[in-house]
Amino acid sequence: MRAMRLPARPVKLGFGPGAATWVLLQQVVVRGLVAVKFLAIGRILGPSAIGLASVALLAVAIAEALSDTGLSQAMIQGHAPPTRDQFGAVWTTLATRGLLVALLLVAIAPLMDAQFHLGGALGLVQIAALLPLLRGVSSPAYFLAQRDRRFQHIACIEIACACVDCTVGVTLALTGVGPYSLLIGMMTGEAFKGVLTWTTLTPRPPVRLRWSGIGHYLGFSRWIWASSVVNLMINQFDKVMVGKLLGPTQLGAYQMSSRLAQMLLADAALAMSQYLFPTFAAHHRGGPHAAARLFRMYLGAVALGLVVVVVVLRAAAEPLFSLVLGSAWLSAVPLFRIFVINMAIGALIAVLVSYLRAIGDARAATHASLLQVVVLIATVPVATQRWGVTGIAWAMTLGLASGAGWMLYRALRRR
After folding, report:
1. Which end of the chain has the lower number of beta carbons within 10 A, N or C?
2. Residue 166 domain flag
3. Which CA distances in Å does 274 have to 4, 224, 251, 303, 400?
4. Which tens digit of pLDDT belongs to each residue from 324-366?
5. CA distance 40 to 200
6. Statement to judge: residues 185 and 225 lie in one domain
7. Quick one: pLDDT at residue 50?
8. Cα dihedral 116→121→124→126 (10° resolution)
9. Count of domains in the chain?
10. Are 236 and 244 in contact (CB under 8 A)?
11. What's the DSSP call for residue 15?
12. Is 264 left (phi over 0), alpha (psi -120 to 50) or beta?
């Protein structure tokens, strides 16, 4: 069979269904709405309420990472799309996983209440349990749309759901619902997304219990699962430490400074990875050299832009917090200055992970995550003792830099 040849031009411009313009538009609109939602709710409710909601979302992140199947990435990366029966098995697996995670979160809600000083607000964790269930029952046709690079359709779905999430969340916060407003807004957006995936995307999976036929995905997806478990330790370890030792108010300040840096830096790269992963994979199927050239081009452009943005954000940190969030959040400024460096490295990692997974080297990301864990184990105790919460933030940054260095080595070695 003759290899597929893709055009040399790395980015398809214009407004065609597969144009990168739709990914960029989705990034601007969705991340803008997420920023409006979090900043508005943060200003209305303050650090303590944001900390309470963060504990519930932390529980969801932990449970989802421990149960990540990697099936969505395996479907995108695979050389052939799934058959109808395989498609049904994927949906069965994802829906079952969502249900089990939801039941687990409801069961551990009292433990989360006791360990993270929720003050009896265990209902936050119980409500958050609906998030993985809603995600699980959505149609996996969404992942086929990503595989086929139907970015226009994906952008429309994501923008519509972000509008619903933002509108509901901010409205409830203004009417006095408190930290529940953040979670209810997210659930409403996820439910709407599920409806859109079933009504607007094809093919639709058969809704019946089926487990066989997807064993060939396991070789790739197991590395995605392993990476998710290790990344859980990396991405949530600091939040667990702050929430357990210092309580919801300090967690709220820590989470907001991290979230603001993420919105301004890492989210752009994460959203762009929705375009890069299937695009790198498609070029790699046509020939590894084309994918390597495209990777070097994107990595250089992203790195140069990040240097400029980091310098600007560190200089403008204090007036930015005062203007956007108010004086109650100024204690988070030193953390924010660390997190902009942290998230810039995370943005580079998003490009590296997209490329490595696209060429079938998913284990490299897992190895990088393990390296980060080793660095954290070696540095966090000393850093925490000497510098407290800022020490944890710097240790996280050092771990990310170590992982990024390893992935860059693996990516360049595969050229």
Report:
1. N
2. yes
3. 21, 16, 30, 18, 21
4. 888 778 888 888 999 999 989 988 998 898 888 888 887 888 7
5. 31
6. no
7. 81
8. 90
9. 2
10. no
11. S
12. alpha
Verify that 194 and 248 share a domain, yes or no. Answer: no
276 plus 343 within the same structural domain: yes
pLDDT of residue 219: 66
Residues 267 and 394 reside in one and the same domain: yes
Instruction: Give the chain's residues under pLDDT 70.
Output: 1-15, 67, 117-121, 216, 218-223, 231, 234, 244-246, 271, 414-415
Ranges assigned E (strand) in 306-378: none
The per-residue pLDDT for range 51-96, each reduced to its tens digit, is 788 888 888 887 777 767 777 877 887 777 888 888 888 899 889 9
Neighbours of 334 (CB within 10 A): 15
Task: Tell which of 179, 213, 247 closes a domain.
Answer: 213
Final residue of a structural domain among 162, 183, 213 = 213
Contacts of residue 377, Cβ cutoff 8 Å, sequence gap at least 6: none
Do 236 and 362 fall within a single domain?
yes
Preceding amide of 334 cis, omega within 30: no
Q: Is residue 259 within 8 Å of residue 108, measured between CB atoms?
A: no
Domain coverage including residue 288: 220-415
CA distance 55 to 354: 29
pTM of the model: 0.69
Distances (CA, A) of 230 to 68, 76, 94, 298, 328: 11, 22, 21, 26, 34
Of 183, 52, 53, 182, which is closest to residue 117 (Cα–Cα)?
52
